[in-house]
Design a protein that fits this description.
disordered N terminus; alpha+beta; 3-stranded antiparallel β-sheet; elongated
Length: about 110
């Protein structure tokens, strides 16, 4: 699997943790150094680095190092496979609910006769 072609399981695993989602929310505002991302979590730096590693492995963030400072940037287009999968699931369930609605309406019409 290519690093920039993450599969859906990696994406959902990365998104399953509230700390990682909070990091992504912060990065949606703009790039940030790791120390800034770690501060609101209350976690130790190695733990935050593990969370960042999961996000980077899923392709959701990119990191760069300038001297001793490592910065992170969100990669919004990496969410596309998640969005596509959720849209497909929504279409399936909307279709099922439409068929159920039609069936219930048909039963109600038959009872009214």
């Amino acid at each position: 699997m290519a690093k920039h072609d993450p599969d859906l399981s990696l994406l959902f695993h990365a998104l399953s943790d509230p700390t990682r989602r909070a990091i992504l929310s912060r990065l949606a505002q703009g790039p940030a150094p790791v120390s800034e991302l770690a501060k609101p979590t209350g976690l130790r730096l190695p733990t935050v680095m593990r969370h960042l590693s999961v996000l980077e492995e899923a392709g959701l963030i990119a990191t760069s190092k300038d001297g001793r400072v490592r910065s992170c940037t969100i990669v919004p287009e990496a969410m596309a496979p998640v969005r596509t999968w959720l849209d497909e699931q929504r279409a399936i369930w909307e279709s099922r609910l439409d068929r159920l609605d039609d069936y219930v309406m048909k039963l109600m019409e038959e009872r009214a006769k």
